[in-house]
């Protein structure tokens, strides 16, 4: 298995397969015609090899569905810039109905950007797409880019899909601080897991990531409150499990679990994951 997932970009191919499979359903809740091409044969091999993720592919479908909804809401509210941090093989600028005037900024590692650009070379995005090559762990260069983008936007939404779980608490705090210091970065959308789900994910999928520099790490005990001291106030969180039930993507066993009320506030050992929207309190 370790030979299949060699680096963090391979996890993007893995997730793209689930977007492709959803897109090919007659009752698809989103359509990503580029997903199978982006996943390639390697994405298919990884998805088939990691049984736990294949069984729970509803989680990735729900996440994509929720992020699409949040993004369109912000576009309709007049946000003029979307800043996608570590988008990997995301193809939203090409597949979503976005205004041509919308600035869509992708910030990612040079190798991942190069690979995606080759695959999508002859495709035309629906908005004003720009890609910035950057290792987000380079704090000095990261802050310089954030300052520049802040000066180019009136109302920006930052999104980080599938990123946070791979960071340490210190790395998340540093990133959150740099983002909240930009007053025009109004909202921030990302997915998060509870400590209970982190333990489960490590147990069921951790071995697949060994040697890939992609370790599951971030699941704060305080839940969304973790971000308040870094300038971000939670304004909405939506459960992936509840969403998957609503869009009819769960089997009977998981539907029973989805009927259980979820804890208010920090989720602790309850296995929870969701899309979380935050507001910049420094704006």
What does this structure look like?
This protein is of the alpha/beta class and 283 residues long. It has one domain (62-199, 218-280): 3-Layer(aba) Sandwich (Rossmann fold). It has helices at 8-23, 35-49, 51-55, 58-76, 92-95, 110-119, 139-152, 169-180, 195-205, 240-246, 252-258; strands spanning 81-85, 103-108, 128-133, 156-160, 185-193, 232-239, 273-280. A 7-stranded mixed β-sheet has the order 3-2-1-4-5-7-6. Helix 1 (8-23) packs across helix 2, helix 1 crosses helix 4 and helix 7 runs parallel beside helix 8 (169-180). It is globular. The model has no long low-confidence stretch (mean pLDDT 93).
Compute the number of strand runs.
7
Shape: globular
The strand order across the widest sheet is 3-2-1-4-5-7-6
Q: Output the structural class.
A: alpha/beta
Annotated CATH topology: Rossmann fold
Order of helices and strands: HHHHEHEHEHEHEHEHHE
Radius of gyration from the alpha-carbon trace, in angstroms: 18 Å
* Count of alpha and pi helical runs: 11
Determine the N-to-C terminus distance: 45 Å
User: What proportion of the residues form beta strands (DSSP E)?
Assistant: 15-25%
Helix content: 40-55%
Q: How does the major sheet shape up?
A: 7 strands, mixed
Q: In CATH, what is the homologous superfamily?
A: Vaccinia Virus protein VP39
Count of folded domains: 1
- The first-level CATH class name: Alpha Beta
CATH architecture heading = 3-Layer(aba) Sandwich
Report low-confidence residues grouped into runs of 5 or more: none
The pLDDT mean sits at 93
């Amino acid at each position: 298995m370790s030979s299949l997932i060699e680096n963090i970009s391979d996890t993007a191919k893995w997730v793209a397969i689930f977007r492709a499979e959803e897109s090919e359903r007659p009752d698809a809740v989103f359509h990503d015609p580029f997903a199978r091409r982006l996943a390639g044969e390697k994405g298919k091999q990884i998805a088939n090899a990691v049984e736990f993720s294949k069984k729970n592919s509803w989680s990735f479908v729900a996440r994509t569905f929720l992020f699409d909804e949040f993004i369109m809401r912000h576009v309709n509210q007049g946000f003029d810039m979307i800043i996608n941090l570590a988008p990997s093989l995301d193809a939203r600028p090409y597949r979503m109905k976005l205004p041509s005037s919308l600035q869509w900024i992708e910030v990612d590692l040079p190798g991942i950007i190069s690979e995606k650009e080759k695959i999508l070379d002859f495709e035309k995005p629906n908005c004003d797409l720009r890609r910035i090559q950057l290792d987000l762990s380079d704090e000095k260069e990261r802050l310089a880019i954030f300052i520049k983008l802040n000066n180019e936007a009136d109302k920006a939404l930052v999104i980080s899909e599938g990123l946070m779980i791979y960071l340490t608490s210190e790395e998340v705090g540093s990133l959150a601080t740099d983002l909240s210091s930009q007053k025009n970065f109004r909202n921030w959308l990302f997915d998060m897991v509870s400590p209970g789900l982190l333990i489960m994910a490590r147990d069921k999928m951790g071995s697949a990531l060994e040697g890939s520099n992609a370790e599951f790490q971030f699941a704060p005990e305080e839940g969304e409150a973790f971000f308040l001291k870094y300038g971000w106030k939670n304004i909405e969180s939506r459960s992936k499990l509840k969403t998957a039930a609503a869009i009819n993507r769960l089997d009977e066993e998981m539907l029973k679990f989805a009927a259980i009320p979820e804890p208010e506030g920090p989720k602790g050992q309850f296995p929870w994951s969701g899309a979380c929207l935050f507001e910049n309190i420094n704006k």
